[in-house]
Structures are given as structure tokens and as C-alpha cells.
């Protein structure tokens, strides 16, 4: 991650470079990377750091005409070189054809990958102006985008190629004329020009005069009592301005969207690997890291809890004193008469499903900048997806009235729900208050992995009763989710999972229980669909298995059960309208589905039994027959 370019105890080297056509002389630490020199020394922040390991391509620049990943290149190796960054592409003020094409197709969403993508696309067309789509994909394969699905990016490169070659007129890059209304037209993102030129500043790109840099000491243990924390040596280290622990929290040290169970930094014990224990604010990232190594923490390890089913057993380790049963939240939904519903069934299917933990992996790692302004307002700039809630939580943490707390949402370089839960903003605010200086924190990719919330891993048992005509008579649905060490958005996720559990199907009798428990795993939180994905995976799989079992077309069994205008939802709201029939028609048409096929499940993929082998999917074979299984299709 970006460091300041020189360190007091290290002799700087002088680099002579030609950057975007101008000769520049820069002082740099001998260990600095080219990316550090560009970002910290020259403020060319169009080159981003997404991974720091040469995997994502957000830091792509040209060195002597060759596209390279600047996070991998020692700055000293660029001595005397000509370097071209994304800021150098549109030097005349007019966007290049590639940049205009990215704007035209809507290729930039969060935009964090886009400067690197523009550089890779430019390199592709410079190397082969006639590159076909396969070559474009191949040549741009070193750049990752988490938002777009790539199709708009590739479309943009093809349009730019054809405009440059004269096969398309330049007007092909112009905005679509929309007349008096945008409705029915492709509209352009207002922020696209700043994204394709690298001018847009994300939190990690921001600097303020006198700014300090924060680093966070994290727990190596999943569950341990903190016996002592000694910060004496770290505080005395030259260049350090403050060291924070939980003792520095002036207000209520517990926050969370639904349950206030999370301290700003670990208090008394740590509950997951990577939990923040202490933080250092210093003149440079490097100094902060060196001081952090001097903090002495004595731990007394406790038994860990890593399986959500174990969390419910009697005698299980207790993660939070307030929840002796380790339950964060249980959401029950009841409708109709479940016993009567199963009695009316001709066939009953029962199956279990599990989904795994998923990392959001947004390309912009967490970052923030905090300062206290001239009116004493504590201000945090960060890519928060839940800014009002964060502001209220911070006001309690720092014991200041709400009008003395400001949150500014910086551009979000990908979130997908992962930036809804507050993690680090409290530490930044405390450091700014303690030092009266702006303080910045940028996570490494590794920190982002260990310290940010994930999609809830889930285990679901579903029992479904149906008539031989495919009508669902009853559903019993139990989901157990691993909430990890803190509650975060778990309650909302469980509520959504419960509400969506039985899909868009009208079911008279249902019994739904979604439950989330504490463990010592990385906390779970918001992620696209907010619990809906885990629930739908179980329910839609059951629908396919039921269709197969009853010899019905999978679209047909859904039409038999779909909610219509006037249907009562699982939580008893009467629907004024419903469009599921149109969704099914569209999906059936677009997929080219062969009507009447009894199974949507084909061959399994991958190397299951050794190279070159394939075998049929056997999921259906595990459908269990029950005593009420009277119907044999
Ligand atoms: Fe590519 Fe967001 S637009 S990562």
C-alpha cells in the first residue's frame, strides 16, 4: 500500500523520469515501487492499488511503451524511463477514442478498475489495431473488473478499434440524442469522464496537509482473552503521533446496525482472527508499521467456535456474554396449518443445502480519511454504503452530539453490500481527535479479506409437500447461518432470508425458521440479495427436484404455484399485482428451453473422477421418500 516516499532513517534515491512527456526528478525510498512514486510523489492517482500483487491490473501504466503493473516494478528499475499513465492519455483535453467508447457503452460502473482497463485497452489497440474480440479478451485478461461483467468493456474496445480504423465514423462515439426525455434512451453516466481519465479521487487517493497515516494491529487468534496491551515503545517511536486502544474510546464502545455488540478495537477479548486490537497514527505508513511491531499484547487463548451447529450445543463456548445461547437472531414465519398441509400432500421431498462464505472482493480496498474541522466537527470521508447509520453510531462512540459528526461518502470503488457495515471509521475519528491532524487509513488486500464482513454461510433443510398435479401444499424451511464474531447486518439478512424463503410461490401452509449464531469466524454481513440468494438456492433447487420427481416441466411447476394478483405472501401481504408469469415467459424464451424436459440438471462439470471423465449429476438420487410418499409418477 502507498507509503510516503522517503523515510527518516533511509537514504533516498533520486529518480529521473519522463512522466507523460515531462522530465521529472523524484526522491524515493530505495524500496519504493513505481506505483508509490506515481501516487505519493507525483499525485498521479489514476493508477490504483487493488491487490498489490500484480493480479488485478488497476495499477497498469506504460513504461517505455510497454504495459506493466506498477505495483510489481521497483521504482529504481524505471530510472531514465518514459512513463505514461492514464492521466497522460488525454493531454490535449479531449478524451481518446478508447476513453470516449468506455463512456459511450457505460463500461465504467464503480470505476475503480477503469483507469487500468483503459490502459490495457489502449495497449491492445496500439499493439494490434485490428485485434478481434478473442484477441481483445486475451490481451486484457490481466485486468479484473468486479462490476461490469466485462461485456460493456469489450464492446467499448471494439467500437474504439473500428473508429480508429475508420470503419465507424467518429460520431459513433457521440452521446445518443435523447430529446426532452431520457426514458427509453441509453443515458450516460455523469461521472464517466472522471473515471476514464483517472481524475476521480477515491478515499485512498485523497491527501490533506499534515496528514498522518494509520496502521492497525490485528489479532492472530480467533478467540482469546486480552491479558495486557503495552504501547509504551510504540508511542515513543520517532514519527508516531498516537497509539490507540479501546481505552481511548470516550463514549459507548459498542456499535452495530441491529445489535451494538462490536467495540471499536477489541475490549477484554478478541473474537476473530484479524480483529483490530490497536492502531498507530504516524508520519508515514512505514513508520506506523514499524511502531506497530513494538506493541506488546499478551493473550490467553480460549476455546474457539467455528461451526454454527456447535454454537447451539449445550456447553459451547460463549462468544458474547449477553447471548449465552450464541443466537444473534431467530426469525420465525408461520402461515396456515403445516400438519394439515403435509397430510394433503401426495409426495413429500426433503433435502439439505449448504452455501459457503463469500468475499465481496471489491477492487477498492477499504479506506478512509478523518479530520476535525475548524468548527470542531469530526469528519470522516469513506466509501460507506450506510452513511447516516454510521454517523449516528460514531456520535455515540466519540460522545459528541450528532451536529458535531459528519460523514462524507467518497466514491465507492465497489461495495456489493460489503461497505454497509462500519469497521474502521471509529478508529480514524479517534486518531483525528487525539492528534488534531487528518489521518488516513488504506487497507491492504489481506486486511480487506480478514477484517471485512462476508456473505453468510448457510445450512438449510427444506421439506416440501406437493399434490401429484405439482401444487405445493406445505413447506417447512429451516436455515442456520454463521454470523461470525459480530452481529453486523445479520438480523436484517435473516429477516430477508425468511421473507423470501419460499420463493415467489403461493403456499398456504408454511413454517419458516431462519437463525443466525455467533462463532469465531470472520463476521458475516450484508451482501447482494441480503440472504435471498441462500434461501432461493434451496427453494429453487427443491422446485427442480419436485418437477423431476413428478415428471413435470420445470417451468410448468412454477406456473402452477406462482403468486398472482390477490395472492397472500408468506408474511400475509395481499399482492395488488404480480409479474412472475412474464418473468417465466421471458426466461423460457431466452433460454431456448425445450418444453416438457423433466430435468434442468445435466451432466456435472469438472474433473470429478479423474481427467477426461464425466458423470451424471446425482443430486436427485438423494431425495428421500417418506411415509406419506403415496404417489409414484
Ligand atoms: Fe470495474 Fe467496478 S467498474 S471494478
TrEMBL record:
<feature type="compositionally biased region" description="Basic and acidic residues">
    <location>
        <begin position="622"/>
        <end position="633"/>
    </location>
</feature>
<protein>
    <submittedName>
        <fullName>Molybdopterin-dependent oxidoreductase</fullName>
    </submittedName>
</protein>
<dbReference type="InterPro" id="IPR012675">
    <property type="entry name" value="Beta-grasp_dom_sf"/>
</dbReference>
<dbReference type="InterPro" id="IPR000674">
    <property type="entry name" value="Ald_Oxase/Xan_DH_a/b"/>
</dbReference>
<keyword id="KW-0408">Iron</keyword>
<comment type="similarity">
    <text>Belongs to the xanthine dehydrogenase family.</text>
</comment>
<dbReference type="InterPro" id="IPR016208">
    <property type="entry name" value="Ald_Oxase/xanthine_DH-like"/>
</dbReference>
<dbReference type="InterPro" id="IPR006058">
    <property type="entry name" value="2Fe2S_fd_BS"/>
</dbReference>
<dbReference type="Pfam" id="PF00111">
    <property type="entry name" value="Fer2"/>
</dbReference>
<dbReference type="Pfam" id="PF01315">
    <property type="entry name" value="Ald_Xan_dh_C"/>
</dbReference>
<dbReference type="InterPro" id="IPR001041">
    <property type="entry name" value="2Fe-2S_ferredoxin-type"/>
</dbReference>
<dbReference type="Pfam" id="PF02738">
    <property type="entry name" value="MoCoBD_1"/>
</dbReference>
<dbReference type="InterPro" id="IPR002888">
    <property type="entry name" value="2Fe-2S-bd"/>
</dbReference>
<dbReference type="GO" id="GO:0051537">
    <property type="term" value="F:2 iron, 2 sulfur cluster binding"/>
</dbReference>
<dbReference type="Pfam" id="PF01799">
    <property type="entry name" value="Fer2_2"/>
</dbReference>
<dbReference type="GO" id="GO:0016491">
    <property type="term" value="F:oxidoreductase activity"/>
</dbReference>
<keyword id="KW-0560">Oxidoreductase</keyword>
<dbReference type="InterPro" id="IPR037165">
    <property type="entry name" value="AldOxase/xan_DH_Mopterin-bd_sf"/>
</dbReference>
<feature type="domain" description="2Fe-2S ferredoxin-type">
    <location>
        <begin position="13"/>
        <end position="89"/>
    </location>
</feature>
<dbReference type="GO" id="GO:0005506">
    <property type="term" value="F:iron ion binding"/>
</dbReference>
<dbReference type="InterPro" id="IPR036010">
    <property type="entry name" value="2Fe-2S_ferredoxin-like_sf"/>
</dbReference>
<feature type="region of interest" description="Disordered">
    <location>
        <begin position="591"/>
        <end position="633"/>
    </location>
</feature>
<keyword id="KW-0479">Metal-binding</keyword>
<dbReference type="InterPro" id="IPR036884">
    <property type="entry name" value="2Fe-2S-bd_dom_sf"/>
</dbReference>
<dbReference type="InterPro" id="IPR008274">
    <property type="entry name" value="AldOxase/xan_DH_MoCoBD1"/>
</dbReference>
<dbReference type="InterPro" id="IPR036856">
    <property type="entry name" value="Ald_Oxase/Xan_DH_a/b_sf"/>
</dbReference>
Amino acid at each position: 500500500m502507498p507509503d510516503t516516499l522517503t523515510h527518516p532513517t533511509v537514504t533516498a534515491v533520486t529518480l529521473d523520469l519522463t512522466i507523460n512527456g515531462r522530465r521529472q526528478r523524484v526522491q524515493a525510498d530505495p524500496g519504493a515501487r513505481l506505483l508509490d512514486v506515481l501516487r505519493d510523489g507525483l499525485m498521479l492517482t489514476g493508477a490504483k492499488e487493488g491487490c498489490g500483487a500484480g493480479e488485478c491490473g488497476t495499477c497498469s501504466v506504460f513504461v517505455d511503451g510497454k504495459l506493466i503493473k506498477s505495483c510489481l516494478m521497483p521504482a529504481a528499475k524505471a530510472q531514465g524511463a518514459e512513463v505514461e499513465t492514464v492521466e497522460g492519455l488525454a493531454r490535449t483535453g479531449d478524451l481518446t477514442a478508447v476513453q470516449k467508447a468506455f463512456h459511450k457503452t457505460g463500461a465504467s460502473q464503480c470505476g475503480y478498475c477503469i483507469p487500468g482497463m483503459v490502459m490495457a485497452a489502449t495497449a491492445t489497440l496500439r499493439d494490434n489495431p485490428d485485434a478481434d474480440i478473442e484477441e481483445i479478451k486475451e490481451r486484457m485478461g490481466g485486468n479484473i473488473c468486479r462490476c461490469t461483467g466485462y461485456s460493456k468493456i469489450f464492446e467499448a474496445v471494439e467500437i474504439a478499434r473500428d473508429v480508429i480504423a475508420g470503419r465507424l465514423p467518429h460520431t459513433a462515439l457521440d452521446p445518443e440524442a435523447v430529446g426532452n426525455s431520457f426514458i427509453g434512451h441509453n443515458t450516460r453516466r455523469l461521472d464517466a469522464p472522471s473515471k476514464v481519465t483517472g481524475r476521480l479521487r477515491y478515499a485512498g487517493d485523497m491527501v490533506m496537509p499534515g496528514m498522518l497515516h494509520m496502521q492497525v494491529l490485528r489479532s492472530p487468534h480467533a478467540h482469546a482473552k486480552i491479558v495486557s496491551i503495552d504501547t509504551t515503545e510504540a508511542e515513543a517511536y520517532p514519527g508516531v503521533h498516537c497509539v490507540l486502544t479501546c481505552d481511548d474510546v470516550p463514549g459507548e464502545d459498542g456499535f452495530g446496525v441491529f445489535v451494538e455488540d462490536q467495540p471499536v478495537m477489541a475490549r477484554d477479548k478478541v473474537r476473530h482472527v484479524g480483529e483490530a486490537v490497536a492502531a498507530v497514527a504516524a508520519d508515514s505508513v512505514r513508520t506506523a508499521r514499524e511502531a506497530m511491531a513494538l506493541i506488546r499484547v499478551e493473550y490467553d487463548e480460549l476455546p474457539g467456535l467455528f461451526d454454527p451447529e456447535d454454537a447451539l450445543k449445550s456447553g459451547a463456548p460463549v462468544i458474547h456474554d449477553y447471548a449465552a445461547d450464541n443466537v444473534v437472531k431467530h426469525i420465525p414465519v408461520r402461515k396456515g396449518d403445516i400438519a394439515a398441509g403435509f397430510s394433503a400432500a401426495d409426495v413429500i421431498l426433503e433435502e439439505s443445502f449448504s452455501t459457503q462464505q463469500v468475499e465481496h472482493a471489491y477492487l477498492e480496498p477499504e479506506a478512509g480519511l478523518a479530520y476535525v474541522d475548524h468548527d470542531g466537527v469530526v469528519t470522516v470521508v469513506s466509501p460507506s454504503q450506510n452513511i447516516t447509520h454510521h454517523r449516528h453510531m460514531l456520535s455515540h462512540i466519540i460522545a459528541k452530539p450528532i451536529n458535531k459528526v459528519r460523514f462524507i461518502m467518497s466514491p465507492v470503488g465497489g461495495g456489493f453490500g460489503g461497505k454497509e457495515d462500519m469497521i474502521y471509521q471509529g478508529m480514524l475519528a479517534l486518531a483525528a481527535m487525539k492528534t488534531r491532524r487528518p489521518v488516513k487509513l488504506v487497507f491492504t488486500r489481506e486486511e480487506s479479506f480478514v477484517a471485512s464482513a462476508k456473505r453468510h454461510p448457510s445450512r438449510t433443510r427444506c421439506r416440501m409437500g406437493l399434490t401429484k398435479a405439482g401444487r405445493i401444499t406445505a413447506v417447512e424451511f429451516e436455515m442456520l447461518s454463521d454470523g461470525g464474531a459480530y452481529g453486523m447486518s445479520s438480523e436484517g439478512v435473516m429477516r430477508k432470508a425468511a421473507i423470501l424463503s419460499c420463493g415467489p410461490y403461493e403456499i398456504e401452509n408454511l413454517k419458516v425458521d431462519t437463525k443466525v449464531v455467533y462463532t469465531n469466524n470472520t463476521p458475516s454481513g450484508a451482501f447482494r440479495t441480503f440472504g435471498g440468494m441462500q434461501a432461493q438456492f434451496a427453494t429453487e433447487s427443491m422446485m427442480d427436484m419436485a418437477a423431476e420427481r413428478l415428471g413435470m416441466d420445470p417451468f410448468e411447476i412454477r406456473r402452477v404455484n406462482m403468486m398472482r394478483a390477490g395472492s397472500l405472501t408468506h408474511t400475509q401481504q395481499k399482492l395488488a399485482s404480480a409479474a412472475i408469469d412474464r418473468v417465466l415467459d421471458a426466461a423460457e424464451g431466452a433460454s431456448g428451453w425445450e418444453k416438457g424436459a423433466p430435468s434442468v440438471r445435466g451432466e456435472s462439470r469438472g474433473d470429478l473422477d479423474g481427467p477426461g471423465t464425466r458423470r451424471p449429476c446425482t443430486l436427485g438420487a438423494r431425495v428421500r421418500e417418506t411415509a406419506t410418499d403415496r404417489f409414484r409418477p
